[in-house]
Amino acid sequence: MYDLSTRKRALALVAQGRSLNSVSRDTGISRAALRSWQHRLEPLPRITGAAPGPPADAAAYAYLLGLYLGDGCLSAHRNGGYYLRIACDDAWPGLIRQCREAIARVRPGVGVYTCRRDGCSMVTSYSRHWPDLFPQHGPGKKHERAIVLEQWQRDIVDAHPWEFIRGLIHSDGCRVVNWTTRRVAGEVKRYEYPRYFFTNLSGDIMRLFTATLDRVGVEWRWANARNVSVARKASVALMDAHVGPKY
Length: 247
Prior knowledge:
- By secondary structure, this protein is α+β, with helices and mostly antiparallel strands.
- Helices cover about 40% and strands about 25% of the residues.
- Among the domains are: about 1-45, no CATH class; about 165-240, Endonuclease I-creI (Roll).
- Helix 4 packs across helix 7, helix 4 (about 60-70) runs parallel beside helix 8 and helix 7 crosses helix 8 (about 160-170).
């Protein structure tokens, strides 16, 4: 079963003039499914039970959405459910704890556990309803498909922009300190310049990040095509107050 947003994205590729073979090869969706959606776009009735409703904690969801877009994925289980997995660097135990807490607040009662891998921990939770809460799930890598928020997700991000920014920074961003020396009155002094960086291969995710920075008044610039820098003193101070370094 594919959700409506996945169907629309696939049909948008077909509408661009691409063949069913080409779209099927790039998305992993069968040609038969694509052909049937051209006649019936709406998904068939749900088979996974009652819809989960909105996230139990909107602020926690905004943070978890940022983590998911950066370093998260959904994996289907043969019984029809899904595993939500967020990769967290072992160097930041505070991040691992915050990720676990966010999942528990978004879906109270679900199990959350940590699976150790080389250099990282996969914070994992099982539920039949994770695709409902993360409709950006789909075949292939996130930077190879369209990432568009649903209206209810946009409403949550608008209400909790800093939590969303924090989740993105905690997944694919960092706070660094550059330094230089100057001679003042014959004495060499060291000056430090903290700044934030965010790196992601998806142009859609980069636009979500920069649009949210604009909304909260943070000035940013492109360091390169896939790297955003926040370096102005006032903007770094805002980020420090609401995001801070990983720990």
